[in-house]
Amino acid sequence: MMIVFKKVVVILLFSIEFSCSSMIDLTQKWIPNAGWEVDCLWTLVENDELQSVRLYNNGQQFFIYRPEINGTSKSEYYRTRAWDVRCRETSEKGVTGACVVSAELIKPPQDFNFTCEVSGERPTFRIETKSILVSASVPPSDAHISVATMDSESGRVTLNCTSSGLPSPTLIWTIGAQRVPPDFSSSAWNYTTKVYDAWSAVSYSWADAGLPATCTPETHRRGRTTPAAPAQYSGARGGAGERDLVALVLAVAALL
């Protein structure tokens, strides 16, 4: 009976300790044309009060919110890194609340570890800490193909393919089932969309009847490949009739 009683006591003590833990919900999301938003939401144990919230970037504290000093909310903007931090209580005594960090991208980013530490008031000063890796990656956008040049006499067409993402997408060309190297490819950081714009060009002949050209965007990061929806073009669709129509359109355009 004594052994059973000890087990029950241990279980009860564990349950009491577990119920005294605060909760932190730490999430990140990508905001198009801006950057990342990191949200830290907390819930203290019953009858506790908020003492402080501390935020860390790669282990370095850069922000502290203390209701005793700052009241029910605090906001701060960091110009050097273009971070906007807003913390506020959402219930009495700060039992629940949230800190929202909007990290605007002003240059190509790197991964960073973000930590949120929430502390209750005296005498216990219960502290809960949670960290998240904010990964500098945005899935590539679906491919878009456009015709750059078209020669009806030689039956040759030059195609452009574009996609955006982070890191810069690789654009893979295939003619039919055969992978082919691009004639040209490049990318550039877009300061408005906060991602890389990638573009690539390839030329092929209509003599390759029935063989469509396909462009597939991929990003490669930490050994992981993330593809996007491919785009496809076929100058052979409709056979000779379509080629004659293209030639007619070009001839009319030349007369205008």
UniProtKB/TrEMBL annotation:
Residues 1-21 form the signal peptide. Residues 217-238 are annotated as: Disordered. InterPro entries: Ig-like_dom_sf (IPR036179), Ig-like_fold (IPR013783). It comes from the Eukaryota. SUPFAM superfamilies: Immunoglobulin. Keywords: Signal. This is Ig-like domain-containing protein. It comes from Bombyx mori. The lineage of its organism: Eukaryota, Metazoa, Ecdysozoa, Arthropoda, Hexapoda.
